[in-house]
Automatic annotation (TrEMBL):
EC nos: 3.5.4.16
GO terms under cellular component: cytoplasm
Organism, scientific name: Duncaniella freteri
Gene: folE
Catalytic activity: GTP + H2O = 7,8-dihydroneopterin 3'-triphosphate + formate + H(+)
Name of the featured protein: GTP cyclohydrolase 1
Length: 196
């Protein structure tokens, strides 16, 4: 079992065989020098890009949840991510900003970034990615409120399909106090816009 992808050697080899078949069906010569090792490289790359399926959020968090007295908003801004659109298996990528109001506990900052990857490294749509991040932070932290804003570029709209270099898509998900309070949402968006 590979520690970076969570897949066995046998599974990676099976995926590589499928990639070899696809490359041949596309009309390429799978025996030419530049392509000989491509099916295996592609299989490993795909295994890495989908490793979130085989991870455990509790292992990711590793008990890095700490007692905290204050209730000021905590914001981690511009966490980059790379995901695969579940409709076309083409990359979409961008940034996620997370805000939360603690309720007696905070979470290690790097763990928020790791949770973003946990949900990004699989076949996804941007709306679900945003909602899943919001949901897990709310559940694991027991915060008073959570807000997640995600901005991404979708290659399936740029290099194929409508072929429009459209502005990035933004999705927002809220829970608890952020759902109830426009003021809190404004505070979050003002903070991430100003970079403070
Ligand atoms: N809501 C949402 N849609 C997405 C996301 N990623 C890709 N899509 C869209 O999924 C849709 C799939 O539409 P279909 O008509 O089934 O597929 P298609 O014929 O390849 O569509 P086109 O991309 O328009 O060529 C497209 O409109 C994509 O732009 C995402 O993260 N969220
Ligand atoms: Zn797509």
């Amino acid at each position: 079992m590979s520690s970076t992808t969570g897949l066995s050697e046998e599974t990676i080899e099976e995926i590589a065989r499928h990639y070899a078949a696809i490359i041949s069906l596309l009309g390429e010569d799978i025996t030419r020098e530049g392509l000989v090792r491509t099916p295996m490289r592609a299989a490993k790359a795909m295994a890495f890009a989908t490793r979130g399926y085989r991870q455990d959020p509790d292992v990711i968090i590793n008990d890095a949840i700490f007692t905290h007295e204050g209730s000021n908003m905590v914001i981690v801004r511009d966490i980059e991510f790379y995901s695969l659109c579940e409709h076309h298996i083409l990359p979409f990528f961008g940034k996620v900003s997370i805000g939360y109001i603690p309720d007696g506990r905070t979470i290690g900052l790097s763990k928020l970034a790791r949770l973003v990857d946990f949900y990004a490294r699989r076949l996804q749509v941007q709306e679900r990615l945003t909602a899943q991040i919001c949901d897990i932070v709310m559940k694991k932290l027991g915060a008073k409120g959570v807000i997640v804003a995600c901005t991404a570029d979708h290659l399936c709209m740029k290099m194929r399909g409508v072929e429009k270099q459209l502005p990035a898509t933004t999705t927002v998900e809220t829970a608890g106090a952020f759902t109830e309070s426009t003021t809190l949402r404004e505070e979050f968006f003002n903070a991430i816009a100003s970079g403070k």
